[in-house]
Amino acid sequence: MRVADRGLDFIVWEWDPVEGATAYQGDVGYPRGTFVPPEKEPPPVWLEEPIFRLDGLSPGASVYLFVRAARETAGRVELGPWSESSGYVWTETEPLPMPACEDMRGIAEGLRMKVVLGWDTTPIRVWVEPAFPDFVREQVAVFAAKLENHLGYPVLDATVTDDISTADIQVVYKKGVRSAAASNGMTPPAVLMNPSKPHDEIGVSFIEHEASHLFGMGHNTCRGDVQPDWVPMSMRLSCGDWAPNGEHLLGVVPSDLDTIGCIFPEEGP
Ligand SMILES: [Zn+2]
């Protein structure tokens, strides 16, 4: 079996004809971690020719295909075995197109991201609700250090401010929020979170995920709620909870640090 063609939202597989086959069945599967509910997986489809086209995928979606041959004789259908596990093909559609660095800031401005619009090269200040455990403040410091080490200039102030009136981002409690969620509509823009779970249950570095939303960065194609018109997060920053390697992290990778540097360039807006 081989991939005959693929695009942003489709894949075409083909395979060598099986002698005596009068039809084929194709069965599409999704790897764990791609956030596709089992009930959305379609039943096997009948195919007249040894070619299968799957449409309606998201950019970067990862799927696999099993096939089997069928022979119809005198009103009976004989089905061959499904292709061996070694014979299935993991295939990805084209990834989300990455905007050029110089366009990323414009995308974030177009989304009316207040943190981006209000930035003047002064490192972004964060205020954290005083009752929150220290690991929340530590995450801000870790994120700030990752940015400065990678970019060579500070984007985020490593020390949280005590004065909310000087803050560019607030980190506040939100009932019902499982771990965290961002709101650009509050003043200052907020990372809404419920830190009542132990640190390692929430997932480390979720501040990095939520603050990145406030920078205009959106979920990548590993999630059902992909935000294709935002500046793409890496898969890891988007989907730490569902990472195929089982890591429970929502942190930045170097490509995300590059992206943030494009949104907040050293020379200013
Ligand atoms: Zn998110």
Give a short synopsis of this structure.
The protein has 269 residues and is α+β, with helices and mostly antiparallel strands. It contains seven helices and 14 strands. Strand 9, helix 3 and strand 10 (169-173) form a beta-alpha-beta unit.
Secondary-structure blueprint of this entry?
Blueprint: E1 2-6, E2 11-14, E3 23-29, E4 45-47, E5 51-54, E6 62-73, E7 76-79, E8 89-92, H1 101-110, H2 114-117, E9 126-128, H3 134-151, E10 169-173, E11 180-183, E12 190-193, H4 199-202, H5 206-214, E13 217-218, E14 231-232, H6 235-239, H7 254-263
Parallel strand pairs: 9-10, 10-12, 13-14
Antiparallel strand pairs: 1-2, 2-5, 3-4, 3-6, 6-7, 6-8, 11-12
The structure holds zinc ion (ZN).
Sheet of most strands: 5 strands, antiparallel
Order of helices and strands: EEEEEEEEHHEHEEEHHEEHH
Gyration radius, rounded: 23 Å
CATH class of the largest domain: Alpha Beta
* Distinct small-molecule ligands in the complex: zinc ion
Structural class: alpha+beta
The CATH topology name of the largest domain reads Collagenase (Catalytic Domain)
User: From the 3D coordinates, which CATH architecture of the largest domain would you assign?
Assistant: 3-Layer(aba) Sandwich
- Which parts are unreliable, with pLDDT below 50 for 5 consecutive residues or more? 32-38, 85-89, 241-248
Number of helices: 7
